[in-house]
């Protein structure tokens, strides 16, 4: 069952990425340019493509469903001595939100929190991921516009890592701590403490650091592999 979830999640997200890329960008990076064209030079193929709005929503749907299926498959790590779970869905949430834009990002957030494994946290997880995905989508528009004139890859990746760090520290962490502060029973179940204290809050923050590092690593690899044109938000001029 877990393998089925993982297969569907991978198929959905990769299909959306391939669909969003223009046909010339789907070629291997080191393909032999000396090969003859597959069709006569006078024949111009014009494949039918959805418009930018439909593509944005399709990428958002695939990203959100993939994130949900990752959680549904149980692909997470539980920190020893607690019930805090670290999972890779934020990679799909941040990439999907950056490419699809603000309104589709809300769909990603709803889907990403829909299969929250901890009972009672579904609505909070949806709200948290909606806020985070929307913030990433809006911030990435400014980042992409700034990097349109600065073609260097390393500054772009460094700014992206800063955006991911803010995603965790300014969105996910405060919402998580606010929820735990308002629900001492959850603190008892997850952290084994009667209420949220400075020590338990520090433990929650520390638990996000390795997940943030993994998200940065996976998304940096994805951006590095993409051609510069494909890094722009879908439909951006």
For the biggest β-sheet, the strand order reads 1-2
The percent range for helix content is 55-70%
The major pleated sheet works out as: 2 strands, antiparallel
**What structural class results from the helix and strand content?**
mainly alpha
- Total strand count, please? 2
Please give the alpha-carbon distance between the first and last residues. Answer: 42 Å
Q: What's the helix-strand series?
A: HHEEHHHHHH
CA-based gyration radius: 20 Å
| Integer average pLDDT | 82
What is the domain tally? Answer: 1
Q: What overall geometry do the principal axes of the alpha carbons give?
A: globular
Q: What's the tally of helices?
A: 8
Binned strand content: under 5%
**Uncertain spans:** 32-36
Label this structure with key terms.
237 residues, two-stranded antiparallel sheet, mainly alpha, 2% strand, single chain, globular
What does this structure look like?
The protein has a two-stranded antiparallel ribbon. Helix 2 runs parallel beside helix 4. A hairpin with a 6-residue loop joins strand 1 (77-78) and strand 2 (85-86). The longest helix has 30 residues, at 153-182. Helices cover 65% and strands 2% of the residues. It has 237 residues and is mainly alpha-helical. The protein has one domain. The chain has 8 helices and 2 strands, in the order ααββαααααα. It has helices at 2-20, 52-72, 89-100, 102-112, 122-147, 153-182, 184-191, 198-225, and strands at 77-78, 85-86. The chain is globular and about 55 Å long.
